[in-house]
Each structure stands twice: as C-alpha cells, then as structure tokens.
Design goal:
By secondary structure, the chain is mainly β. Helices cover about 10% and strands about 50% of the residues.
C-alpha cells in the first residue's frame, strides 16, 4: 500500500460559472442525514477561507475596495483509493485551495500549485487518474499567469515562475486553444501546450477533441479525442485515442462511458494499454460533497495484455461560501 498527502495547492483564477440545464429544469433535493457537526465545520471553514482570501485581495489590489464583489474561493479535500487485480492497492489524498482575487488585474493572475501535472503520463491526464509512483514530479511551483490573450481565433495563457525547491527550478508554460463549429452538429477543440523546466527540459502536448450533442439539451454528449505528448526527459512520444459519452441522468448523477488506447514510441512503437471503463459520479450533499466510482477493464503491456479489472473510488469535499461547485456539469465548448 502506498499513501501520499499532497500539500496545499493555491491558484488565483477566473470566476466563470457554467449554466447547468438541470438547475433550470428541476428543483434541488438534498440528503437530510448529514451530521450537524459536519455541516457546522463546513460553514465555519468556508467562512474562514472567504475572509482570508478577501484580505489578500484587498492587500494585493493596493486600493480601497469600494465595489462589493462575491469572493468564490474554496478548499477541496480529495480521498482516492485505487485497486486493480494485478497491481497493488493504492491510496491517494490531496488538499487544494483555490483563492479568488476579484479586485486584482483582470488578465494577470498569481499561481501557486503543488504537484504540477506537466510531466505525468498522457494516459493519466486524459483519464483523470492519479499518478502515485513518480515522486520526482511532486513539488510546489509559484509564478504569474497572463490569461486569455486572443490571437485571431486562438486563446492563450502564459505562465512563468519557479519550482520551489533547492536549487530553484525556473519554468515557463504556454497553452493555446481554439474552438470551431463543424458541420452536422459537431464542435472541435484544439489545444497546444508547451512547457519547459530547467531541471527536466521541454515538453509538449497536442490534442484534438470532437464533441457532439446526442440530444438538444446537451445532457448526453459524445467526445472523441486524440492526443500526443512528447517529454524530452524520456525522449518519448505518448499517444492516446479515446471515446467517451457523458450522460447526465439527473441533477445528482452523471454516468461516463469510456473506451480507449494508449501507446509509447520507445523502445519501439507499441500499445501500452487498452481500456473500457464506466464511472458514476453523484452529488451526495448540497454543492460540497461528491462521490465517484470507476470500475474498469485494462489490457496493459506490462501484464502481457491480460485483462486487469480494477476500481477507483473518490470522495471530494468542498468548503466555500459563494462558489457553486458543479462537478457533474459537462458542456460542449463554445467558440
């Protein structure tokens, strides 16, 4: 068994909240068996987070805050046990804090992250899995971000900063993205990420995703994606092809069906894994307690492509006063 507890992750980012069709079409029902002490703890901690974030916002804005603006900071606690038949049981947990600074400059943001995912495997990124084996990836980074700069039909974010360890490790990152409406109801999303760390060298990630609404309200969405990642540290290309269906069956439940393959270019181009998975995400209580269960079948090269059944569980708790967390919402990108 392995156990990791990541340190706090803080990022200063935008306040966008998507519109969920289920919020418009049915009332919200809640569980009533939640212990009173947990409700009180959630409320108290949420209030503290908002107060601290507002004080930081006031300090960094260097001006009197005359206009009241909702502060949407939050703290997240995630517990994630993973089991597979041919591997060890693993348990990962993390604590992350997102601080909203509504009075700072619109485009420049401060960032502070623990465990940046730039050098994680492409399959883990695309499937939303937790990497618990590469401890050299862990470590906080801090810097600044120039957000949502427009170049023609492309939007771009630029980061520059330091990995906070000795010796200090400078890094820079850039992400470009564009969305286009295609014929017959399809939408495409193109992303290009470039990153460089002084200790590891450069890397890149290119992805193309196609989206299609299987019904008009976009409660059932098909996503087909292809992506490629190159890490100079490993001198290796990684490739992932997948298809997913997001099925929002109610305001409290989301089903995701996934099938895909991954491959590496070294030592010879070969498939690393093929998988079939199903995930059930449920909002357990209000907008701050969520559950996810993901059983899967994997056919991995390291196990001679023999079937490897497994299951991943996830519990997430959010502590926030003003932000409406919606872990179940899925949408088609808009140009």
């Amino acid at each position: 068994m392995t156990f990791w507890l990541s340190s706090v992750k803080i990022c200063f980012a935008d306040n966008t909240i998507a519109t969920d069709p289920w919020q418009q079409s049915e009332g919200v029902t809640e569980d009533t068996l939640m212990p009173a002490w947990l409700e009180d703890t959630q409320s108290s901690l949420s209030e503290t987070i908002t107060e601290v974030s507002s004080n930081i916002d006031e300090f960094l804005s260097l001006s009197d805050l005359e206009d009241p603006v909702l502060n949407k900071s939050y703290l997240r606690i995630r517990l994630q046990p993973i089991y597979s038949h041919r591997e060890y049981f693993e348990f990962d947990s993390s604590i992350s804090l997102r601080m909203d600074l509504p009075h700072t400059e619109k485009n420049w943001k401060l960032i502070f992250e623990t465990d940046p995912g730039d050098f994680e495997s492409l399959e883990d990124k695309e499937r939303g899995l937790v990497e618990t084996t590469r401890t050299d990836n862990r470590g906080a980074i801090g810097g600044v971000r120039l957000e949502s700069r427009k170049f023609g039909e492309w939007y771009a974010d630029f980061d520059i900063g330091l990995k906070l360890r000795l010796p200090l490790d400078p890094f820079t990152r850039a992400q470009f993205r564009r969305t286009d409406k295609l014929g017959e109801g399809w939408t495409s999303l193109l992303r290009q990420e470039l990153f460089f760390y002084h200790s590891k060298g450069p890397g890149s990630l290119t992805s193309v995703d196609l989206y299609y609404a299987l019904e008009p309200a976009e409660l059932t969405i098909l996503r087909i994606g292809s992506s490629a990642q190159f890490l100079d540290e490993d001198d290796n290309w990684q490739f992932v092809n997948l298809a997913e269906i997001y099925d929002r069956v109610s305001s409290r439940n989301l089903f995701t069906y996934s099938i895909g393959t991954s491959a590496n270019s070294r030592p010879n181009l070969a498939a690393e894994n093929a998988w079939i998975s199903f995930s059930w995400q449920r909002r357990l209580h209000k907008n701050w307690l969520f559950m996810k269960l993901t059983p899967s079948l994997n056919f991995q090269k390291e196990h001679d492509y023999k079937v490897n059944p497994g299951i991943q569980a996830e519990i997430e708790l959010y502590f926030t006063q003003n932000r409406q967390i919606n872990k179940l919402y899925r949408s088609i990108p808009k140009p």
